[in-house]
Amino acid sequence: MPVLTPRRPANPQAASSPSREWTRRDVEELLNLPFPELVFQAQTVHRQHFDPREVQISTLLSIKTGGCPEDCAYCPQSARYDTAVDASRLMAVDAVLTEARAALAQGASRFCMGAAWRSPKDHDLDTVCEMVEGVRALGLETCVTLGMLTGLQARRLKAAGLDYYNHNLDTSPEHYGAVITTRTYQDRLDTLSHVRDAGIHVCCGGIVGLGEDAADRAGLIATLASLPRPPESVPINALVRVEGTPLADAPPVDAIDFVRVIAAARITMPTSFVRLSAGREAMTDEAQALCFLAGANSIFYGPKLLTTPNAKQDRDRTLLARLGMRAMA
Ligand code: SAM
Ligand code: DTB
Ligand code: SF4
After folding, report:
1. Of 63, 149, 173, 259, which sits with the fewest C-beta atoms within 10 Å of its C-beta?
2. Ligand 2 mean position to 305 CA, how many Å?
3. Could you report the per-residue pLDDT of 36-62, keeping only the tens digit for each?
């Protein structure tokens, strides 16, 4: 029996009004605040725009897994690294809709479909558009992440009814080249502007734990907050260290430092949903609770992220109940 009742989240259309300018220095100052002061500021901002008891629930499905030509050093789906991921073809529309129905029954309000592509081929986009139409017809919000898009491809997805496009900046402009060499930061910014121009909500964030320093974390958050309009949804991932990837042995992310990044995202992007994204499986319940206190108000719910395990659903239900929190109306 689902404990999380499906409800639609608040309309985020109003969520991306232009905010004040945030420089990297401003964000570094935030990250360096005494922890109680930082969390207090984040809480104050969070409560001005959201009910702090509510969490938006998304479910992820990998619709095309592995075999990706890109070299993102964190990613188990890159064909360049010897990981346990087996490459597979794009799923059939029916199979995706079966998974979407299950996610809806489990309380998700948004269904996110990810493909391990550098960018989609036009004939694959036809199939993804059918998936978007079908998922939307179930009453779920739709999100896809397919790699780089042209303006025309973004408009096609919009016409199919796509609500959100996920495309992460991942890290600061300065650290980026140490993590990915097969596409540039500017390529990512270009895709984000095609998505924005097509009228699709932007889901854009990054990863903590890629060997970056505090200045890079500030650079990522400042870049996100200074986009012409901040993203409506900001996933903050803790690196999931996967055997076979170049970052498999990266030092684990300090939980308090991770909470600081969440708080900085909340303060600088007050009306955006901040998603406590990948990495929850390895986090304690207490660290997750601190993330919620610092303004995270969205999670991925379900047994799997794209290829790696997510926090168990029982554990999530128990945690939200222990915290007196609930799925967003
Ligand atoms: N291939 C498309 C792309 O990269 O734009 C879409 C899928 S890709 C897997 C989506 C995002 O997942 C990446 O940008 C990255 O931020 C995140 N990601 C991938 N592997 C991860 C890992 N091991 N730990 C944390 N986040 C990860
Ligand atoms: C995002 O920022 N995190 C999600 C989603 N966007 C697509 C992906 C996390 C992937 C974690 C590694 C894996 O499961 O393959
Ligand atoms: Fe490919 Fe996306 Fe993984 Fe990079 S993050 S290797 S583009 S699937």
Report:
1. 173
2. 6
3. 999 999 999 999 999 999 999 999 999
